Amino acid sequence: MTSRVLCFGFNTEFQKKLIGAWTVDLDAKKVDLVLLSRKSCPNAELHAETALKSARRIPDGAIGERLKFQFLKLQYNWIYQRLEHSRPDQVMIYNGLNGVNYLVSAACKELELPQLYFERAPLQDRVQIDSSGVNFQSSIPTDIEFYRELAEDEFADYRGAQYVDSHRVLNDGAELDDASSVEGIRSESYVFCPLQVPRDTQVTVFGGWITGIPHLLDSLDKASRQLPDHLHLRIKEHPSSPVSFAQQIESYDNPKLVLDKQHDVYDLVANSQGVVTINSSVGLEAFLFEKPVITIGEALYSFGEMTTRTLDSDTLCDAMADFPNLKWSQLERDRFVKFLLFWFPPMQEVLSKEYTPQDMFVRDQKFHLLRHDVSK
Q1: Predicted pLDDT at 165
Q2: Which domains does the chain have, with CATH numbers?
Q3: Residues of the chain scoring pLDDT < 50
Q4: Alpha helices in 244-329 (DSSP H)
Q5: For the chain, how many helices (H) and strands (E)?
Q6: In the prediction, which pLDDT does 220 show?
Q7: Which helix (H) or strand (E) holds 207?
Q8: Rounded alpha-carbon distances, angstroms, from residue 132 to 5, 28, 42, 141, 208
């Protein structure tokens, strides 16, 4: 019997192609428009409040915020009723962390409906497909003992030939530019910090102890002053950010804090002494360049001895002061990245229907067997 599937949040051209390929042999319906309902459903206010915190756009002022909250609550009611009435075998959700997509995820959990989440992976040209969630909420183990206990060649077939040289990981990645483009930073000694999109869920949901980009910049201003004399901190704004933080950065009048408007992010990583980030996939790229990484928020890759984690402004200052001496485990990083290449299927294989739900089932079965073997 063909599974009945409802799909939410697949709106862009890429997302439509992705879900179209994945559900080609399924009885799938895509919900393009979420309506409103006044009929109150379980925990509507709680879920609307959470969705408001992660929404990409919030109207200015208390009145606008309240109206947005009410709107999200009515949307949740409609989603809950749609799911309760149709009782699909599975609900497929893009991202599932922000705004309406979070409401779908919340309603599924209330109704105990199976979910499957999709998102671009933090490795170039790969995609996340996971029943638990994406990014920090995914099924990827964050218990370092899992990786330490794996056989050295467990995922050798998934690593890909010379991936360190041929893939400068990250979505929208690019090869390093020619020497002329990096003139001026090769002679510099700096730590690099890539800013993230202010309302991205990596900041609003997984930001850790920082409250947002303005708070991050205040903390970096303080911490950069603790760097050894030969180092400074270079910051690059995210190209997709709807607002610029240049004025705030320049207002610090801090010679240790430099806003870089010229160089490519990948060149900045390659020529840096290391990276400090909330949880950007740039931190994962730094693994491939064998650079130390300081994380501020909840990062998929920040556990064990792969990075230096901070708990507050003081520990960030301490890490920056000791930057030249920061250590990490290359063995742990190698095994973790190999696992990611096993876990994240190549995007083109999904789009071309070479990688199917059956392949994901085989992947998950192998993963469960490995977890069982490692836990013995």
Answers
A1: 43
A2: 4-143+349-375 (3.40.50), 159-336 (3.40.50.2000)
A3: 159-178
A4: 246-251, 265-270, 281-288, 313-321
A5: 16, 11
A6: 98
A7: none
A8: 17, 20, 22, 12, 20
